[in-house]
Amino acid sequence: MADGSGDRLVASLHRRAGAEKKPLAILIHGLTGCEDSSYVRATARHLLGRGLGVLRLNLRGAGPSRPLCRGHYHAGRTEDLRDALLALQELREDLLAVGLLLVGYSLGANMLLKFLAEHAAIFPVLAAAAVSAPIDLKAAQERIMTPRNAVYHHYLLARMKDEAMAAPTVVGEEERRAIRGLRTVYEFDEHRVAPHGGFAGADDYYGCCSARQFLAEIAVPTLVIHALDDPWIPAEPYLSYDWSTAKAVTPLLPAGGGHVGFHGGDGCTPWHNSRIADFFASRSTSGLA
Questions:
Q1: Which position among 65, 106, 132, 210 bears the catalytic label?
Q2: Is 230 known to be catalytic?
Q3: pTM for this one?
Q4: Cβ burial, residue 274 (10 Å; 0-12/13-18/19+)
Q5: Domain span holding position 43
Q6: 126 with 13, same domain?
């Protein structure tokens, strides 16, 4: 699927017999993820088992999209999702004929919530679900940089740097040295994400793109799942939000579950996938198996 920049986003489509009579679910990965992230694959398996068609989307510069893109996704780049759906509508209108169901995870969930407020009205979106979204990006950045998260912070930053320097992006040796020298996620956002995304700096990026400010504008039935013990995304932005102002949004805030964890009682199906499928079934006239 192409956009006006010449970049192309790659997606994997799965449809079993009979799925053409049901909505198509589109899954959107998180930071440094892709279509093959374990949580994406787990949801795809579950929704396929419930009779839906599933499309696993790789954001700009991620996974199989990487060789076809010069740019990169970020938490607020909702125009990429909009353009991908427009391209899908043009290429395979039949896939949207019964409607769309959208699922986002972590950073991709923040992007999805912002997209729902900005662009969902032009598509046949029946329902959506966001899992472990950093709806306050500044708060998430501060949490990730706490001493208790030092190992994850180092791991995440290393993967972000690898993405930034991966071909076909043209990165000179001086720029590579600068990227390698970035010491924190905040510095990466300040010196890479913000200037490339048209923001004045990291704090401007966080302020413009945090989904919390868009929740009240969402008109699509949306399930928001977040564990209060998430080690990387703080609960306070969820607990302090007045959910009565976001009339289309249903918050589900269990005490435990970690970050995109939510292991099911049967030891196999992640709990959040069951909740998402049930939520979608209740909002879709075509139903799920």
A1: 106
A2: yes
A3: 0.94
A4: middle
A5: 1-136+214-289
A6: yes
